[in-house]
Amino acid sequence: KAGVTQTPRYLIKTRGQQVTLSCSPISGHRSVSWYQQTPGQGLQFLFEYFSETQRNKGNFPGRFSGRQFSNSRSEMNVSTLELGDSALYLCASSLSGETGAFFGQGTRLTVV
Amino acid sequence: EDQVTQSPEALRLQEGESSSLNCSYTVSGLRGLFWYRQDPGKGPEFLFTLYSAGEEKEKERLKATLTKKESFLHITAPKPEDSATYLCAVPISQGGSEKLVFGKGMKLTVNP
Description:
The complex is a heterodimer of chains A (112) and B (112). Chain A is mainly beta and 112 residues long. Chain A has strands at 5-7, 10-13, 19-24, 31-38, 42-50, 53-57, 64-68, 74-78, 87-94, 102-103, 107-111. In chain A, the strands form two sheets. In chain A, strands 2, 4, 5, 6, 9, 10 and 11 form a seven-stranded mixed beta sheet that branches. Chain A has a four-stranded antiparallel beta sheet with strand order 1-3-8-7, with no helix packed on it. The A-B interface holds A 4, 6, 31, 33, 35, 42-45, 48, 50, 55-58, 88, 90, 92, 97-106, 108 and B 31-32, 34, 36, 41-46, 49, 87, 89, 91, 94-105.
């Protein structure tokens, strides 16, 4: 079956702009988590959605937000982009939030 | 504070030279430990789940083991295609669900 799909794969944005990233989970998976990966901080948890509800949130500013649709697809939005937001954004899906999640290929965001 | 530490940060091996990667954790009530492999520019690929001390899992040249304080990823007779970053992660309960806390990763280079 198809894996986790993230779009777009690459993005270049200017400081102050906003961006929306998309994640389609594995069919049947209802939990979607988002992570930010940078060389200095490694993988850091952003938030988790299950059945259209945010169940868990990491220590990121309110500029980072997300949502989940009834078909379990999820989007994350970053407003007022800063240079430090440049990172690989990863989405992971699982059946119901249990661990051993499966990751997508990520979206590489570059803020200039 | 729940922490996951991986060592060494980077490792260079010759093809066929076996070694071990370490992942230590300070988590109360461990509910599992996960190993992932990540190739440059791609999302982490799920390798193993370990749930209890003494448990071992194997896949090709990789074997993961778990104690009460750490996990080891043993690489036997590695090949150049084993070159990648290896990540370990533990699930932390938060907000009614779980999030994964990752180590910073260990970059393995296997030279032919």
